[in-house]
Amino acid sequence: MSRPPAPTRADFGWWDSINTRWNDNDIFGHMNNAVYFELMDTAVNNQLVEACGRPVEEMPAIGVVAEVSCRYLREMRYPGTIEIGIAVTKVGNASIHYKVGLFQGPGDEAAAEGRFVHVYVDSLTREVTRIPEVIRDSAADLLR
User: Fold this and answer.
1) Which of 63, 42, 56 is nearest to 118 (CA)?
2) pLDDT of res. 2
3) Number of other residues whose CB lies within 10 A of the CB of residue 67
4) Of the chain's two ends, which shows fewer C-beta atoms within 10 Å, N or C?
5) CA distances from 104 to 13, 69, 78, 109, 113 (A)
6) Using CA of residue 51, residue 45, residue 116, residue 17, what is the dihedral sign?
7) How far are the Cα atoms of 22, 46, 55, 100 from residue 11, in angstroms, in the given order?
8) Does residue 29 contact residue 77 with C-beta atoms inside 8 Å?
């Protein structure tokens, strides 16, 4: 059974850059697996802040992480900059499914590919609710 090919930069429509930190490396000299999830969460929320024009926690509905996964394709490490691409693969009534590509160094292929799902809940009651229109519109722009 062969692995699916790595996503390329062309697969993503929104970009962020985050510098690695000294403590991102683990004892094996590469970025610890948990850091990949922190980077994906940060990039998705940075995109939402940009799209909404205000902190997402001030919205009447907030996205909570319902699912996250990562396919590691090659090592990343400190020091360096991680370029993070975001695409949306599905927009439901209350959820958005993201594809996240993490790139470090030259080359067109991702070093890691993530899946990230937000489910929207009322910010006060925490009941599942419809995605706010500003976020829905932003997600629609990133559909691939």
Assistant:
1) 63
2) 84
3) 11
4) N
5) 17, 19, 10, 9, 12
6) positive
7) 29, 19, 27, 9
8) yes
- Single-letter amino acid, residue 90: K
Query: What tokens does 139 get?
Result: 């997600």
Residues 6+ apart with CB under 8 A from 72: 33, 36, 111, 112
pTM over 0.90: yes
pLDDT tens digits along 39-66: 999 999 999 999 999 988 889 999 999 9
Q: Rounded distance, CA 124 to CA 88, Å?
A: 26
Place of tokens 């999830």: 37
φ, ψ of residue 16 in degrees (nearest 5): -140, 155
- What's the rounded Cα separation, in Å, for the pair 64 and 53? 19
Residue pair 84/43 in contact by the 8 Å Cβ criterion: yes
User: For residue 34, with 0-12 CB atoms within 10 Å meaning exposed, 13-18 middle and 19 or more buried, which class applies?
Assistant: exposed
Residue spans of the chain under pLDDT 70 = none
